[in-house]
Amino acid sequence: MTRPVVCQACGSSSCALLKPGVSRLREELQAAANRTVAEVTSATTEVNQRVNVFVGTEAVLHRVQSADTVVFLDIDAELLAPRYRTSELVGTLVVHAARLVGASKKAPRILLQTHTPENPLLIGLATGNLDAYNASEKTRRELLKFPPFGSLAEVSGVGTKTFLESMSDSALVQTMIKDSTHGLIRAENWQMLSDALSSAKRTAKSRISIHVDPPRI
Questions:
Q1: Which residue stretches, if any, does this entry annotate as coiled coil (predicted)?
Q2: Where does 58-119 have alpha helices with state H?
Q3: How many domains does the chain have?
Q4: For the whole model, what pTM was predicted?
């Protein structure tokens, strides 16, 4: 079914795609499968391993011991996220899923729901050949100077703005201040990044965290 161009109720052309949450999915799956479905999120304290259908966030990949089939609903939400390591993170999720189904004796499967089947990573996972994906990812990172062809650090905490402003005149790095407690630093290599971080000024009451090569930015 094609999503309408305008809302039939209010006439607005700005339409949001509403998705059911984990709890709603659990209810619908339980009704459709006519069996108990367990919900697993980061807040889950105990997982009943005797249940044979689970639904949840990424936490389910770490909390469930084994599975015959793992299904990723809307993997595009991760695959198309505006993060430079997004395909790497998706690959990590699939590896965790492979661990779950690896011991299955019932035709183990990993299913990914997507609207971008031509994505190099998905093609590589489906065919078992990641050469084309590796080549395209290397080219992209090299052009954009992302690690390992450049250095990147995320700075957060009290005093971040002052800390980054002290490097504004440095020829070693580029800085970007998101707000008073979040910012980024880019450098040509790890040594330049290290030198800039070592020489930057910190205020007496600052509480700064520095995450080099952050996975989610």
A1: none
A2: 60-63, 76-79, 86-101
A3: 2
A4: 0.79
